[in-house]
Amino acid sequence: MENGALSGKTAVVIGASSGIGLATANLFVDHGAKVHAAARRREVIEEGAAGVTAHALDISDSEAVWRVVEEIGDSDGIDILAVPAGMNFPERRFEQLTAEKWDQMISVNLSGAFYAVRAALPYLRSSEGLVILISSVSGRWPDASGPAYQASKAGMIELAHAVGFEEHTNGVRCTAILPGIVDTPILDNRPEPPSKEVRDASLKPEDVAQACLFVATLPPHAYVPELTMIPTAIQAFGKTSIASPPV
Ligand SMILES: NC(=O)c1ccc[n+]([C@@H]2O[C@H](COP(=O)([O-])OP(=O)(O)OC[C@H]3O[C@@H](n4cnc5c(N)ncnc54)[C@H](OP(=O)(O)O)[C@@H]3O)[C@@H](O)[C@H]2O)c1
């Protein structure tokens, strides 16, 4: 793909200090986009992503999300909004969940995405723009990621589809990307972090960034509502378990 494929476009990436978001922000810059990159750890964005404008933002803070998105939209417009911000915690089994933990998960992983897309909507309508929500295969079939995480990721998929359903006549596309396991720091929060062997066989953040670039560089008349990407050797569609051999 040519390097200027996103030139003239403004992209906002929320959750851009690490992993998939950082790789996506860097890839979008490489392809000529003007990138606004946000996360709570602004200084980490500045260390890892050259050529972006970094913003400190907690996506679960609806007023802060509105303010930052509006500032960006008013100054540069918004062609692409990508939301990779997300979290999980080690105490994820249903019997371990409390109302407080549940609310924390939903507020970051699901409500945060809603706040961002809602705030960006006027700018996306003006630009006939694109939303990319980084959900997960955990939102599609059961696995060990925990009911709160799975519910948040399933909600994110349906948020993407419903926004796409309502907004396509305004030229706005909303894509849910569902990665399988990706070798990023979020895996350190598993009750038992995966082995080096599993990490090596996992997707890399740059792979998912390529999926983001793919949807972001399609012509406006081509809409991908959902894109699933899994690591060939250790996951199959509908099957997360890496313990049992393929059948
Ligand atoms: N890795 C996987 O196996 C995998 C698989 C499927 C889907 N996903 C999803 O992919 C997305 C990216 O995760 P990753 O794997 O790249 O993990 P990661 O390296 O841990 O990155 C998570 C990003 O989310 C940001 N974030 C977390 N809480 C936030 C908040 N309250 N406000 C703003 N930003 C916040 C973090 O930034 P700050 O901490 O600086 O705020 C960081 O930039 C997540 O939604 C995750 O659920 C990951």
State the main characteristics.
247 residues; alpha/beta; Rossmann fold; seven-stranded parallel β-sheet; 7 helices; 7 strands; globular; binds NADP nicotinamide-adenine-dinucleotide phosphate
Q: Gist?
A:
The chain has helices spanning 19-30, 42-48, 62-76, 99-127, 147-167, 196-201, 205-216; strands at 10-14, 34-39, 52-56, 80-83, 130-134, 173-179, 226-229. With 247 residues, it is of the alpha/beta class. It has a 7-stranded parallel β-sheet, with helices on both faces.
Indicate the topology.
Blueprint: E1 10-14, H1 19-30, E2 34-39, H2 42-48, E3 52-56, H3 62-76, E4 80-83, H4 99-127, E5 130-134, H5 147-167, E6 173-179, H6 196-201, H7 205-216, E7 226-229
Parallel strand pairs: 1-2, 1-4, 2-3, 4-5, 5-6, 6-7
The chain binds NADP nicotinamide-adenine-dinucleotide phosphate.
NADP nicotinamide-adenine-dinucleotide phosphate (NAP) is lined by residues 15-21, 39-41, 44, 57-60, 84-87, 108, 134, 136, 179, 181-182, 184-187, 205.
Say which molecules are bound, naming each kind only once: NADP nicotinamide-adenine-dinucleotide phosphate
Calculate the mean pLDDT score and round it.
Answer: 96
CATH topology: Rossmann fold
**Which secondary-structure class do the elements indicate?**
alpha/beta
CATH architecture name: 3-Layer(aba) Sandwich
Order of helices and strands: EHEHEHEHEHEHHE
How are the strands of the biggest sheet laid out side by side? 3-2-1-4-5-6-7
